[in-house]
Amino acid sequence: MSSQRLIQFNTIRNIANVFSGMRADEFAVEAQTESATYQMFTFAGSDGSRLVALWADGVAVNYDPGIPSTITIPGFAGWKATGIDVLNGFEQGLIIEDENGNLVISDFLLKDYPIIIRLSQ
Fold first, then answer.
1. Residue 29: closest CA among 47, 3, 51
2. pTM attached to this predicted model
């Protein structure tokens, strides 16, 4: 199997694992970013967890350094946030702050491919 096919297979597997049991759901998420355009979609799981998928919606580049952004999720103070990079296959706890009942993620790197934020209590 070529290395590109392996990357595609791993990425699709990662996406399937992350979104297993999730359904589309609407809840407020605010992004302060210098990205001219971005996309964002929200999901909920039967276990009460939530997902936010977001990315810079522009021309993809090799080795995108990301655009530092601030993500605010009203009403989610006290929740944990985990960043999931489905392309590279890793998860990382995000540094969060609680501000006036909101969960705030500062210095979030908005990439040209979807980064998933998993919210859990």
1. 51
2. 0.89
